[in-house]
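Usage

Read records sequentially. Each one opens with the input sequence:
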Amino acid sequence: MKVSEFRAMTEHLERVVNVDRHACVGPAEKAKWVDVARRIGDELVKAHCARATAVAANLGWAPDWHRAQ
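and closes with the structure output:
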């Protein structure tokens, strides 16, 4: 995967977490947001970019949204 593609994926996840989350109104929208955020996060965790730095590629963390029910 190209670095630009990897970077775009991380920026997309960041936008979903930091912007879209705040737009949710009610439990149904929050539940849908959790599903979307998990899917995007899972795709990013599986992504491989040989040129990504060790810090950028260290996706073993589990952010709060990933643990949310």
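Summary fields computed downstream for this record:
- Confidence is low (pLDDT under 50) at residues 60-69.
- Residues 3-67 form one domain.
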